[in-house]
Amino acid sequence: PVKKGKEQNTQRSFFLRMKCTLTSRGRTMNIKSATWKVLHCTGHIHVYDTNSNQSQCGYKKPPMTCLVLICEPIPHPSNIEIPLDSKTFLSRHSLDMKFSYCDERITELMGYEPEELLGRSIYEYYHALDSDHLTKTHHD
Length: 140
Description:
It is a single chain. This protein is an alpha+beta fold. It has two domains: 66 residues, no CATH class; 57 residues, PAS domain (Beta-Lactamase), CATH 3.30.450. It is 14% helix and 30% strand. The strands form two sheets. Strands 1-2-3 form a three-stranded antiparallel β-sheet, with no helix packed on it. A two-stranded antiparallel sheet has the order 4-5. The chain is extended and about 65 Å long. The two termini are 16 Å apart. It comes from Ochotona huangensis. InterPro entries: Nuc_translocat, PAS, PAS-like_dom_sf. Pfam families: PAS_11. This is Hypoxia inducible factor 1 alpha subunit.
């Protein structure tokens, strides 16, 4: 239930990984051979009030909610034609946000060797003043 007087943030932005069964030539392949594609999805939640306030049984129908998104594919890092700038590094993380890969640019930018970070959680490195933003990001 929404508290009165509080606005809901309906904006959404997230990354979604999906199996892709299309080849570069436009043909379909077996799902077991499919590759993973990453999409950046942005949009908002839309709530529609139902026309009739009550059903035949006397209970109020809940509003219909849908998510309206535009998703754009993100190229795989090995397929990026334009090199990443000198202030960007690439990392990969497990579900508990532990580094599973980190490229060597992190050394120049942050002072860590990639090997130092492997198996360590990203949460060990955030600044305390960023904790509110980090919490909000996880809850949105």
